[in-house]
Design brief:
Order of helices and strands: HEEH
Strand content: 5-15%
Low-confidence stretches: none
Number of strands: 2
Strand order of the largest sheet: 1-2
Largest sheet: 2 strands, antiparallel
Mean pLDDT: 80
Number of helices: 2
Shape: flat
Length: 112
């Protein structure tokens, strides 16, 4: 088995994730970054509740960003659960601001 794996590794060449051309930085095939979190527009595109800052430094009333763009760089793992957790947190903030109840009780079998 070891010889088969060694032969396969020799055929595949250097790992693409660690190529010198990429500065040996970890990369992700998930589009991440571009709309970072910050306390104000000088430090980010959105606030802690995923509300987008407007050009005048105020918050847009109805523009929320809750996708991979709020993750600043590769996490080294699939970012799906991190994106989901941040989006759920933002929705709980939204519900609280609107005086709405947000049911957080887990139902069904849950994650297996």
């Amino acid at each position: 088995m070891r010889s088969a794996l060694t032969a396969r590794a020799a055929l595949s060449g250097p790992r693409i994730l660690w190529r010198r051309a990429l500065g040996r930085n970890l990369i992700s095939v998930h589009p991440l970054g571009g709309c970072g979190l910050g306390d104000d527009p000088g430090h980010g595109v959105i606030d802690h509740a995923c509300r987008a800052f407007s050009a005048d430094g105020m918050l847009h009333e109805v523009l929320y960003i809750m996708d991979g763009s709020i993750i600043p760089r590769s996490l080294g793992v699939n970012p799906g659960l991190t994106i989901t957790a941040l989006a759920e947190r933002a929705m709980m903030e939204f519900a609280g601001e609107q005086g709405l109840e947000f049911d957080t009780e887990q139902r069904g079998a849950g994650l297996v």
